[in-house]
Amino acid sequence: MGHKELAILNFSHFKDITNDIYVKFTTQVMDAIGECLVNSKPSDTRLAAMTLSDYVTSGTALLAVVDDDYAIAKPAPGFWIYGDAEWGEKDHAVGYDPAIGDLRVFDVYSNAIVRDTMINDQTAKFAAYDGNCAKNPKVPCDLYLMSWTLTPPTDVWDASKAANRCLGQQITLISDLNWAQAKHQHGLCRLRGIRTGY
């Protein structure tokens, strides 16, 4: 693994999992790829404030972030708290607060099965994005993730082809949608992540 690249692994959508099973899961991941996991950071620096050079000084780095409450209840080195900015307290265990997330991400999918519906939804969300969490507007986000995902009940692979085929062109159209507003309010705002459906 000599390449100096950073990949973010977002573990989410757990089903029928307990804290004990989660601990087994983290052990298995650590055994398989632990040597590449990001295990530490400067105490006064957020993950999103670190530069690519900070992450890849020793080569390829994998940043494992965990959605939901497992990384809070059972912390483990190399597994960071993913503060999904879409979720409010009712979506999580009592007391969940995205402010405690190691990586706070505006990650709001469309819940659409039609390509153009998804495109319009994601374009509107990015244009309106002000740098804060969706349901917790007093909490700033670290990153914006454009959820370029269709969610049909079956045959996800075929549905994803239509969305992914036009992704490159759409990025050129939307990358500067809210630039002037965000630059004025927050200094900088650029699209930092894209999630595609497979």
Write a structural description.
- By secondary structure, the protein is an alpha/beta fold.
- The protein has two domains: 6-82, no CATH class; 105-196, no CATH class.
- The protein contains seven helices and six strands.
- The chain has a six-stranded parallel sheet.
- The longest helix is centred in the N-terminal third of the chain and has 15 residues, at 19-33.
List the helices and strands and how they pair.
Layout: E1 6-11, H1 19-33, H2 52-55, E2 61-66, H3 70-73, E3 79-84, E4 103-107, H4 115-128, E5 143-148, H5 156-165, H6 167-174, H7 179-186, E6 193-196
Parallel strand pairs: 1-2, 2-3, 3-4, 4-5, 5-6
Tell me the major beta sheet.
6 strands, parallel
The DSSP helix count reads 7
Structural class: alpha/beta
Rg is: 17 Å
Q: What's the number of domains?
A: 2
Share of β-strand residues = 15-25%
Shape: globular
Helical percentage: 25-40%
Mean pLDDT: 80
Taking the alpha carbons of the first and last residues, their distance comes to 25 Å
Helices and strands, in N-to-C order?
EHHEHEEHEHHHE
- The strand order across the widest sheet is 1-2-3-4-5-6
Model regions low in confidence, pLDDT < 50 over at least 5 residues: 178-190
Number of strands: 6
Question: How would you summarize what this structure contains?
Answer:
With 198 residues, the chain is α/β, with parallel strands linked by helices. Helix content is 32%, strand content 17%.
